[in-house]
Amino acid sequence: MWRGVARTYRGLARRPVFFLAVVLTLALGIGANSAIFSVVDAVLLKPLPYPGADRLLALYEASPRQKVAHGKVGPVRLEDWNRMNQTFAGMAGAYTESAAETSASLPERMVTAKTSPRFFAVLGTPPLLGRGFNPDEEITGGPRAAVISERLWKRRFHGDPQTIGKTLRFGESGYEIVGVAPDSFTFPSSEVDVWLPAQVRAAVMRMRDVRFYIAVGRVKEGIAVEAARSDLAAVQARLAQQYTQTDGQWRAVAEPLKEQTVGGVRRSLWILFGAVSLVLLIACANVACLMLAQASRREAEIAVRFSLGARRRQVVGELLREALCAAIPGALLGLLLALWGAQWFQHAAASLPRSGEIRLDWRIVAFTLAVSAGTTLLFGLLPALAATRRQMAEQLAHASRRQVGGRRASLRILVSAQVALALVLLVGAGLLIRTLSEMGRTALGFQPDHVLALQISASFSEKNDMPRVQQRMARTLETLSAIPGVQAAALSLSAPGGATPENPGPFSIVGKGDLQEGEKMFADLQSVSPDYFRVLGIPMLAGQTCRIRFDQQHLQPVLVNRAFHSRFLAGENAVGQQLRVEDGPVEIVGVVGDTREHGYAKDPLPVIYFCELPGFFPDPQYLVKTAGSPAAMVEAVRRKMQAIEPGRAVYNTRPLTEFLAGTLTERRFQSQLLSLFGLTALLLAAIGLYGVTSFFVAQRRREMGLRAALGARPAQLLGHVFRQGAAMAGAGIGAGLLAAVLLSRSMASLLFGVSTLDPLTFLAVTLCLALVASAAIWIPARRAMQADPMDSLRQE
Q: Alpha-carbon distance 753 to 192, whole Å?
């Protein structure tokens, strides 16, 4: 056996071009496919890293009237659900806050998760070190405990087992570290550094209209998920009857926790996996072309072996061994590429949910081996069988002339398929690139240049003292505005243009009567400081700019945008109109231009801007208008903030243009990856065209010589070969265009400002592919012009 393998490798060494082409083609296809599969496996296929993860359901409150489909859950309602249901083993929730931890020499901003009772018990993940929370630590006034993330444990405490018992300080309170959660524990967010008991006050537990928990429930063993959903819906229906005012318009929703975690990226990941699978198919088609061509070149050798008594099984076995010997190095190299690719994805795709779980494990190895074996069997066995299917006499009769018409048809089909698949990938990449281009040209409605964005961590001791928080915000704005080089400073709930969730609020227009339930009006609600519109260069269209009301003798002033005016007050003067919102009546004092508050892909929504400092939101977005480069002001702003707020951490300090560019990271990553796959497919298709055309020219060299001897001009020989190659490429382009038209519809949700049938993309890709195909055909076709007529006549 080993002698046969050694003999096979010696034979392959005598054909280095063929051997290297097969190895590199397989390595590229298998490596890329396995790397993407490692992402799909970690994010979509593996269960969540919690015991009995299939029994964990994400719980929401939903209200069609409030246009809330997946809302947060109120603490009192969560306790009602937990107490009244019959099918859940337990329910719990958490909400995140940003806070400054001050036990070190400098304050450090940390993301905290405030948890309800039963939190760690419901999720079921054992701590890496220490324990979860005891029941007495989860009630109001109980001991203050903390569970830290493995990431924080390694970074701050260097993985010291003696970390248990140490103290973290938030505001004026100390929290004893009782446990370390593993990296795989990411509920309610992968950004959480510390979990703390919420210890919700009794007064809040009586507020049925307060909702802030991200909730989860564990279904009892033996209970079907659908039964649990029905049970929870029935519980909420009873609460709606009992508390009509606060619960009557709300229902309970339960969905698999995995869907909440990865549902937002499912479609894009499967599209990428489909794209890289096309690359693998192209690679396999290339290998098939190479092996079919090699089988044709060895027909005479095979015929001689049959004439000397070799059995078909022996000949097929040797050809298959050759395919395996070429595939094994390709698979190993592909495995190395997959390992590198998985490591790269961990960093390049850090925004993906569960990206920390991306790694090359036994599943990926098994996948790679399965792909390798399948590729070898399919494209090694079939050419071997095809090469040996003729009888010995027929082989000997045709060995000298090598009539390979049927095989030529197979090669033409494979090459055309490569071209078609390459075109599909290039169209997908082109559509995403066009989307990025359209987003870059999209007017946001504000001027992000010369604006510095930053946030300041919350102070736990002040979070329930709104006037004090607002006073500190006002003082911070005054300090920022006084820094040399700063023209103005403002704040809002979130940075404009980011992918922040909408905040729809119901309202009515005073004097126009209350609308029926189905006609309820909604607008996006934003809280901003007076200089917000000046800092961002948002034009005033009517009325006056924002002012803060510090007394109760005037109505709360608000501004609305053009979209609000056009939709709800078309043809009327909006200034002076009064609106009724949940907190009472407000007065419109001005109309401003439209902005894309929620990202490039979201059209401007009707917005109501409240002129107030958002004291109820701990970490608003400060926006600083600078005379020069905002990046040059970062250190000056940090030093000034540390001087007046030594106990709070300044974070996310960056130019607003950089923040906006970051919102396109995922789309840019998708387009770059798909472009890489498309260019790889284009290269493989070009190699396939070149190789097959070269094979055809070599097979027909004597025919070309005879044509030349009979008077054919070199240009005619060139045209003859070129037409054959162009026919293969043209068939592939035609089939690819049809497939691209059908498959591009699946990308509709990823596109912005571009049709799935964008003519510019389709035309550019077709022309590019046609040019590359022409070059790949022309190079070997030139050799047909060099056919020697005398040589052909001597052989005849």
A: 36
- List CB contacts of 550: < 8 A, sequence separation 6 or more: none
Q: Find out whether 124 and 52 touch, Cβ atoms under 8 Å.
A: yes
Amino acid (1-letter code) at residue 366: A
The answer to whether the bond into 51 is cis (omega within 30° of 0) is: no
**Three-class SS state of 265:** helix
Percent of the chain with pLDDT over 90: 34
Closest CA relative to residue 562, chosen from 531, 527, 523, 605: 605
Cα–Cα dist 475/665, whole Å: 35
Would you kindly state where each structural domain of the chain is located, as residue ranges? 67-248, 460-647
What token pair was written down for 771? 């040019």
3-state secondary structure 149-165: EHHHHHHHHCCCHHHCC
Stretch 162-190: mean pLDDT: 93
Paired tokens of 127: 């701590």
Q: Which residues pair with 591 in a beta bridge?
A: 542, 560
Query: How far apart are alpha carbons 346 and 38 in whole angstroms?
Result: 10
pLDDT score for 788: 52
CA distances from residue 425 to 255, 281, 560 in whole angstroms, order as listed: 34, 12, 44
Task: State the amino acid at position 244 in one-letter form.
Answer: T
CB-based contacts of 343: which residues, under 8 Å, 6+ apart? none
**Cβ–Cβ < 8 Å for 235, 61:** no
Listed range (165-174, 188-197, 364-373, 481-490) with the worst mean pLDDT = 364-373
Helices (H), 593-713: 634-644, 656-662, 665-699, 701-709
Three-class SS state of 68: strand
Residue with tokens 């023209």: 487
Tokens encoding 202 = 């009794």
Q: How far is it, in rounded angstroms, from Cα 56 to Cα 123?
A: 8
> Rounded CA gap, 563 and 538, in Å?
14
d(CA 285, CA 378): 10
Residue 217's nearest CA partner among 413, 308, 84, 27 is 84
- CA distances in angstroms from 449 to 385, 452, 519, 630, 631, listed in the order given: 67, 9, 40, 8, 11
Distance (Å, rounded) from C-alpha 131 to C-alpha 178? 6
Residue among 625, 589, 636 at smallest CA distance from 609: 589
Q: What is the DSSP string of 735-794?
A: HHHHHHHHHGGGGGGG-SSS-TT-HHHHHHHHHHHHHHHHHHHHHHHHHHTT--HHHHHH
CA separation (Å) from 322 to 294, 316, 325, 691, 770? 11, 10, 5, 19, 34
Pairing of strands 88-101, 214-219: antiparallel
Residue spans of alpha helices (H) in 381-500? 382-387, 392-398, 405-441, 466-482
DSSP tally for the chain: helices H, then strands E: 26, 22
Does the structure show a pLDDT above 80 at 602?
no
First to last CA, the chain: 42
pLDDT value at residue 172: 81
Q: In degrees rounded to 5, what are phi and psi of residue 180?
A: -125, 125
Q: How far apart are CA 208 and CA 54, in angstroms?
A: 30
CB-CB neighbours of 789 under 10 Å: 17
How many Å apart are CA 301 and CA 406, to the nearest integer?
19
Residue type, 420: A
Distance CA 365, CA 392 (A): 42
* Partners of 251 in beta bridges: 62
Give, for 241, the enclosing helix (H) or strand (E). helix 225-242
List, in sequence order, every beta strand (DSSP E) within 501-593.
Answer: 504-509, 521-528, 540-543, 556-561, 578-581, 584-592
Between residues 311 and 338, which one has the greater pLDDT? 338
pLDDT per residue as tens digits for the range 368-415: 667 667 766 666 666 666 656 654 445 444 544 444 455 567 778 878
Average pLDDT score over residue span 686-700: 75
Provide the H-helix boundaries in 107-182. 119-123, 150-157
pLDDT at 599 over 80: no
